[in-house]
Design brief:
The complex is a heterodimer.
Chain A: E1 6-15, E2 18-28, E3 33-37, H1 44-52, E4 59-64, E5 67-68, E6 79-82, H2 94-98, H3 109-122, H4 138-150, E7 156-160, H5 168-185, E8 188-193, H6 196-202, E9 205-210, E10 213-218, H7 220-225, H8 230-235, E11 240-249, E12 252-257, E13 261-265, E14 276-282, E15 288-290, E16 299-310, E17 314-321, E18 328-333, E19 346-351, E20 357-359
Parallel strand pairs in A: 3-8, 3-9, 6-7, 7-8
Antiparallel strand pairs in A: 1-2, 1-4, 4-5, 9-10, 11-12, 11-14, 12-13, 14-20, 15-19, 16-17, 16-19, 17-18
Helix pairs in contact in A: 3-4
Chain B: H1 4-28, H2 45-52, H3 54-87, H4 93-101, H5 108-121, H6 128-152, H7 156-164, H8 169-198, H9 201-206, H10 213-220, H11 227-259
Helix pairs in contact in B: 1-11, 2-11, 3-6, 3-8, 3-10, 6-8, 7-8, 8-11
The chains are: A alpha+beta, B mainly alpha.
The structure holds adenosine-5'-diphosphate and magnesium ion.
Residues 44-45, 161 of chain A line the site of magnesium ion (MG).
Chain lengths: 360, 268
């Protein structure tokens, strides 16, 4: 295997005495769909612009395909960018926009026109080449921006929240299109997003960022199932957090958890051999509301339903377990014949110790 | 009727503003030499007389030359200042910009006297160039005001996108920035041209032996017999000014539509 296509080594970026990036180390492989995920203001755009060459790192090195990019301006880097505002040139036609980057290539005119037409076809804008760019819809502009960058066959395509301006339906469609387009062209995509669902759906790997640092870098599955700390756990999906006490018990470990009682746990669930006061995490789908007449299964505890939110396919219950002061969230699939339970109902809750994750 | 008082006020206001101007064409096309009612009859003789006066032609040429050069220089300076103001943050930006905009509120006579003193102190001759220098000074603030909104409405990532696609800074300016702010540039050229063409006080102080059109016009006023000719000339100037300002505003609005920005208020 060849080396990483993007390598960042100790990248810092400060604006005056504000530190937007505080030491980023990162390697991204060729053909990877990589996401930078984090709340607004955590430095995602700054990092993307540092890779693109629009910002100079205050410290550290940026390597693209093994070459140090220090002093290499944006127009000579093997990257292209899809801007958050799309930045489609309003005074040019769609075809002129898409062919813009080919102006400097040696490609003869007819061949260029063919390349533009083929690219438009690929992003689903076939036949719209003569349309004025300022007359396009948001989704179409997004495709123009994509086509304009991809036609140059960059080593890395950088996308800054490309879907956040689209409405939900179109956004979901574009997520799938973007993913399959990336598999087709085989180019490394680096996607910036603050939408955890989007990152989980689209990425091979995700870097979760907080305050200019990468908190966790892993596959979507690992990020969801094995978050390294509470911040990551709470940012990705919903995580119920309960007070806990971890103790050694002979050769094993056990945890006393509020509302759930004392259970034996495995060492892999406890990062860094943590003992003493800790926080236990449980995803909403690992808890089950047991209906009247259903037999107990696994471990069972009791509580009161305090809230009920209906989502069509799912219902989210807020259940306050006995002995706790806040409700936990439990997600239940709405199967045929299964009633929606009203707030105030007393219920049994089934859960399993294997689903527990512990944080300091 | 609601707003009745306001409506009457607006009517009187407009009457005060435009009635005198309406008198210009009225007497310009009147056949009598005496400026008084009742009107004698329709005639274009005052316009015909305009064509035959050599001194007038010289004044017109002076004015056009001054207006064109002033408009171009003021707009060039305006482009630099407006782009800087819209794109860069630097220490003392506010005061510097305020200083450049100062001539907007400075009485023209002060600019005129100050420049006259300076030119005489330096031992230079008064010419069309001294008028141009002063006109650039008073046109630049207008140019900046127009162009600043043009540059501010321009999404900075458009320029970055062009660089990202391989263009240099200069080719980006030529291919992206310039076409998108062009309506603003045209609008600035036209407004500056109009301001310079109409300007009297500075030209009166600084034009020396090369009078501009307004200065020449003022000279004519000493002879009551040439009053109708002045009226004719005035009519042409009014029509020309309205035409230019309207065109300028048209370009400004088209620029806004093209960059998809909302109107932040222009001069009209
Ligand atoms: N040019 C700049 N000057 C000063 N501060 C900046 C500049 N660009 C970004 N920042 C700051 O850096 C932080 C990170 O910004 P950004 O990378 O845009 O965050 P994100 O894309 O994750 O929302 C923000 O707090 C922002 O205010
Ligand atoms: Mg951002």
């Amino acid at each position: 295997m060849s080396g990483p296509i993007v390598a960042l080594k100790g990248v810092h970026k400060s604006y005056g005495d504000y530190h937007a990036l505080r030491g980023i180390d990162l390697e991204i492989g060729a053909g990877e769909f990589f996401s930078l995920l984090g709340p607004s203001g955590c430095g995602k755009t700054t990092l993307l612009r540092t890779i693109a060459g629009f910002e100079d790192a205050s410290e550290g090195r940026v390597l693209l395909d093994g070459r140090d990019m220090a002093g290499v301006p944006a127009n000579r880097r093997p990257t292209n960018m899809v801007f958050q505002t799309y930045a489609v040139f309003p005074h040019l036609s769609v075809a002129e926009n898409v062919g813009f980057g080919l102006r400097r290539s040696q490609m003869p005119k007819p061949e260029r026109a063919r390349a533009v037409e083929a690219m438009l076809e690929q992003v689903g804008l076939g036949g719209l080449g003569r349309r004025a760019a300022h007359a396009l819809s948001g989704g179409q502009r997004q495709r123009v921006a994509l086509a304009r960058a991809l036609i140059l066959k960059p080593k890395v395509l950088l996308l800054d929240e490309p879907l956040s301006a689209l409405d939900r339906k179109l956004r979901e469609q574009m997520q799938h299109e973007l993913r399959s387009l990336q598999r087709q062209v085989g180019i490394t995509f680096i996607l910036v997003t603050h939408d955890q669902e989007e990152a989980l759906i689209m990425s091979d790997r995700i870097a979760v960022m907080f305050e200019g640092l990468i908190a966790q870098l892993a596959t979507p599955e690992d990020i969801y199932n094995r978050p390294v700390d509470r911040r990551v756990a709470e940012f990705i999906g919903v995580m119920n957090l309960l007070r806990a006490e971890i103790r050694r018990n002979g050769s094993g470990i056990e945890a006393e958890i509020e509302g759930l009682g004392t259970v034996p746990i495995e060492a892999r669930q406890v990062p860094g051999g943590l003992t003493g006061a800790a926080t236990a995490g449980l995803r909403p789908e690992t808890l089950t509301v047991l209906y009247e007449g259903q037999p107990d299964r696994g471990r069972v505890t009791h509580g009161n339903i305090e809230e009920e939110t209906y989502y069509g396919d799912m219902t989210y219950y807020g259940v306050r377990l006995d002995g706790t002061d806040r409700p936990v969230t439990i997600s239940m699939r709405n199967l045929p014949g299964r009633d929606i339970l009203d707030p105030g109902t007393r219920t049994r809750v089934a859960w399993s110790p294997e689903a527990l994750i512990f944080f300091p | 009727m609601r707003g009745g008082g306001l409506r009457i006020y607006a009517l009187i206001y407009l009457l005060f503003l435009y009635a005198p101007i309406l008198l210009l064409p009225l007497f310009a096309f009147n056949s009598s030499q005496i400026i008084a009612f009742p009107l004698a009859g329709f005639s274009t003789r005052w316009f015909e007389e305009l064509v035959t006066v050599d001194a007038l032609h010289e004044a017109v040429l002076n004015s056009l030359f001054i207006a064109v050069v002033s408009a171009v220089l003021a707009t060039l300076l305006g482009i630099c200042a407006a782009r800087t103001a819209a794109r860069y943050r630097f220490r003392g930006k506010g005061p510097v910009l305020g200083f450049i905009m100062l001539p907007l509120v400075l009485p023209e006579i002060i600019v005129a006297v100050a420049l006259l003193t300076l030119i005489l102190q330096l031992g230079l001759d008064l010419s069309v160039w001294s008028v141009i220098a002063a006109h650039v000074l008073i046109c630049v603030p207008f140019s900046i005001a127009i162009l600043q909104s043009a540059f501010q409405n321009l999404d900075a990532s458009l320029e970055e996108a062009a660089v990202d696609l391989g263009e240099t800074r200069w080719s980006t300016f030529r291919l992206i920035t310039l076409p998108l702010v062009m309506p603003g540039i045209i609008s600035s050229l036209l407004i500056s041209f109009t301001i310079s063409l109409d300007e009297f006080i500075i030209a009166f102080f600084l034009s020396g032996t090369d009078p501009t059109l307004p200065v020449y016009l003022w000279g004519l006023l000493r002879f009551p017999s040439s009053l109708p000719v002045v009226m004719a000339l005035g009519t042409i100037l009014v029509v020309l000014s309205i035409l230019l300002i309207t065109t300028a505003e048209f370009f400004r609005r088209r620029g806004l539509a093209r960059t998809g920005a909302t109107d932040s208020g222009g001069f009209i």
